[in-house]
Design brief:
Helices cover about 70% and strands about 10% of the residues. The model has no long low-confidence stretch (mean pLDDT about 80). The chain has 2 domains: about 190 residues, no CATH class; about 90 residues, Alpha-Beta Plaits (2-Layer Sandwich), CATH 3.30.70.3040. By secondary structure, the protein is α+β, with helices and mostly antiparallel strands. Strands 2-3-1-4 form a 4-stranded antiparallel sheet. Helix 2 crosses helix 8 and helix 2 packs across helix 9.
């Protein structure tokens, strides 16, 4: 395509925005409102996902070695656990360390057991993928010299199920919002194009190709998407900066902490910008398609 033709398409798309200023305002408003909702919802979902990841990463397996096992047997068990597929980290804790932990938790009365420690050595195991914790725990439980494997049976499965359902609901809501935006802008642009139906028919009759007619409308959709994305990007960025500045120091020592402003906002704004363009292109493309059949 010649540069002159490309320039003509750009000029036509910009002229159309000015000529149909009320329709332009309606389309931009539809994209702005929807992307603002998407942006706010994504801030919430991505921070909740960070919380979910932190919770998952805190899940670990406690492998208690047989109290009758000697040092060589415990080493053999440790090596086997470390070699288990999906295991990220194994931390060894001697039976004396385990007893000291119990004394700290339950009181000095347990010091009586220091003379004859009934506990076994323990291994604290973390999985590369926390979702595989249960499967890894069951596998380790079959190993020789294993006395007991603790991982919060029943509770861990429910936790992972709740986290997965929450993530799926969040993704579904975001997709629903995007389809709503596409529907709104598609209908808005369709009204604009309907008013220019005769113009399209004349261009077709004089030999204009479908692409020649379609491109200005697609460019128009891109402008609408870009204009509609600017305000949500600004609002979400400013609001999140203020939210982060206020709450991040207070949540520093907690399990839940807000995502750092950078690169989070850069990624989020880039995503909103691309969404705006895609929504505009899709809406324009779908709207003009039926009018090209003369």
């Amino acid at each position: 395509m010649k540069a002159r033709t490309i320039g003509r398409h750009f000029r036509e798309s910009l002229k159309s925005l000015r000529r149909n200023n009320w329709m332009t305002f309606a389309s931009v408003s539809a994209v702005t409102v929807t992307l603002l909702l998407v942006g706010v919802f994504m801030v919430i979902m991505m921070n909740l996902n960070e919380l979910a990841v932190n919770i998952e990463n805190d899940v670990e397996i406690k492998v208690i070695a047989d109290p009758a096992a000697d040092e060589a047997m415990v080493k053999e068990l440790t090596d086997k656990v470390r070699a288990t597929e999906g295991v990220l980290e194994v931390v060894y804790s001697s039976r004396d360390d385990e007893l000291n932990k119990m004394i700290q938790s339950f009181g000095d009365e347990l010091k009586l057991y220091q003379q004859s420690n009934p506990l076994g050595d323990a291994l604290y195991v973390k999985a590369k993928n926390p979702q595989e914790t249960v499967a890894i725990a069951k596998k380790i439980d079959t190993y020789e010299y294993t006395y007991e494997v603790e991982y919060g049976k029943g509770k861990v499965e429910k936790l992972f199920k709740v986290l997965n359902v929450s993530r799926n609901i969040g993704i579904a809501l975001i997709i629903a919002l995007l389809f709503t935006a596409m529907f709104l802008i598609s209908n808005t642009i369709r009204i604009t194009i309907t008013a220019r139906k005769r113009e399209i028919e004349i261009m077709k009759l004089v030999g204009a190709t479908n692409n020649f007619i379609r491109i200005p409308f697609v460019l128009e959709g891109i402008w609408l998407g870009v204009l509609g994305a600017i305000l949500p990007m600004l609002i979400v960025s400013i609001a999140y900066y203020k939210l982060h500045a206020h709450w991040a120091p207070k949540l520093k020592a907690e399990l839940f902490h807000l995502l750092d402003t950078m690169p989070f906002l850069l990624q989020l704004n880039g995503l909103l910008f691309v969404m705006g363009i895609v929504i505009g292109i899709w809406g324009s493309f779908m709207s003009v398609r039926k009018f090209l059949k003369v």
